Amino acid sequence: MKVTVVKDILDANRRIALQNRQVFDRHGLMVLNLMSSPGAGKTTLLERTIRDLAGEISIGVIEGDIQTSLDSERIERAGATFAHQINTFGACHIDGNMISPVLDQVDLASIDLLVVENVGNLVCPAEFEVGEDHKLVLFSVTEGEDKPHKYPLMFRESVLMLVNKIDLLPHLNVELESIHDAARQVHPEITILDISSQTGEGMNGFYDWLREEVKKKKERGPAGES
Amino acid sequence: MKVTVVKDILDANRRIALQNRQVFDRHGLMVLNLMSSPGAGKTTLLERTIRDLAGEISIGVIEGDIQTSLDSERIERAGATFAHQINTFGACHIDGNMISPVLDQVDLASIDLLVVENVGNLVCPAEFEVGEDHKLVLFSVTEGEDKPHKYPLMFRESVLMLVNKIDLLPHLNVELESIHDAARQVHPEITILDISSQTGEGMNGFYDWLREEVKKKKERGPAGES
C-alpha cells in the first residue's frame, strides 16, 4: 500500500519532469540540477560562476530551500539574469512539480543556462528529476572520504562531481585521492573536478565544462524535444 | 489523500516511539538522537566520547546509514559496549519503527547511555521520534551561518547544539557568534557548546552535560515510565 503511493508519486513526478524537459529543449536551454549537503557551498559556487561568466553565459537560477530567500538574494546580487526562490516548507528535495509553475513566471528565452539549486541534502534530491539535462553533486572535502559509499545514489545519478573547499585540505585529515576513488567505485564514469569556489582554484575547468554543455545543448536545439 | 497518508505514518511512528521510550525508561536509560548534515563529524564525536568516558559511562550506539556498516565498525573499535548498524536502504532518516526490533537484539541493561546516530541529513530526521529523551544537533562551522534559518525544525527540536570543527575557524570566513545567534533566533532555549572532536577542545563541557543527563535519568528510574 505504502509502496504503491510512493511509486505513484515517483511516476507522476517523472511525467511532469518530462514536460518540463520539453519546455527546456524547445529553448535549447541547458538545465543543471545542483545537489549537495547543507553548507557544501552551492550558492558560493553559483555566485562566483555568475560573476566570472558575466557577458558570456547568461544564467538563471531556481533556488530550493525549506525556508528563507537568503540564497536567491545572494544570487541576484551576483548578477544572475533571474533568481527565483522556491520554499518547500518541509520537503527535503525539489521535484518536477515544484518547478513546473515557475516556468511561466521566468523568462527562459533570456538565459543560456538554468541551474536548479536543490535543498541541501545528500539523500532525497537524487530520487527526483526536475527535467534537468544533468545532475551535479558538489562535495566538500570537509565531509570525509566515506560519503560516496554511504550515499551512493547521489553519486551514481551525477555526471559531474565538483570537489570543493580544496583550500582547506592542509588543515584536514583527508586525502583527495581517496574521495576520487570512493566516487569512482560507485560511479566509474563520473567526471571529477577539484575546486575552491572561495579562492577560485580549479574554477576554469568547471567553466570549460559549462561552456561545452551549453554549446552542445544549443546545437541540438529544438530537436532535443523528441 | 497524500496528506492523510503522511499523517498516518507520523501517528504510527509516534505510537511506536512511545513504546520504545517505555522500554528505555524501564532501564533508566538515557537515550540521545544525534543528528547532523553528512560529514559534520557524528562518528568522530562518538569515537572520542566513548574512549574518553571508558570505565565511567557505558555507551551503546545504534548507527543509521543508508548503506555500509563503516560507522558501526569504527564505533566498535572505539570500545562501545555495543554498536548496532541499521541500513535504511534509501530512507533519509531513522524512525521508531526501525529502532523497535533492534531493542530485542542488544543488551540495554549493559549500558548507561544509548546514542542513536541518525542518517546524515538536516531535514528528515528532525520529523521523527525514535523514543529518545533528547535530540542533539551537531553542526560543523564549515556549513556556514545561515543554516539554522534554512533548516529551522532541526534546531528547534534539539535541546543541545554542538558546534564542531572550531579548530578550522582561522581558515574560514565564519563568525562563531553568528552561528550562535542564528540558532538562538530559531530556538532561544537551545544549549550551545563549541567543540572540536578532532583536537578535543571543549569536549569536557559535553562530557559534563552527558554525566548530568545520565544521572538525572537514572535517578528518575522506572518512574519515568508513566
What's the structural blueprint in terms of helices and strands?
2 copies of one chain form a homodimer.
Chain A: H1 2-26, E1 30-35, H2 42-52, E2 59-65, H3 70-77, E3 82-87, H4 96-99, E4 113-117, E5 134-140, H5 147-150, H6 152-157, E6 158-164, H7 176-186, E7 191-194, H8 203-220
Parallel strand pairs in A: 1-4, 1-5, 2-3, 2-4, 5-6, 6-7
Helix pairs in contact in A: 2-3
Which tags fit this structure?
homodimer, alpha/beta, 7 strands, 19% strand
Brief overview:
The structure is a homodimer of 226-residue chains. Chain A is of the alpha/beta class and 226 residues long.
Q: Would you kindly provide a written description of the structure presented here, covering whatever features stand out?
A:
The structure is a homodimer of 226-residue chains. The first copy, chain A, has 8 helices and 7 strands, in the order αβαβαβαββααβαβα. The first copy, chain A, has 226 residues and is an alpha/beta fold. Chain A has a 7-stranded parallel β-sheet, sandwiched between helices. The first copy, chain A, is globular, with a radius of gyration of 17 Å.
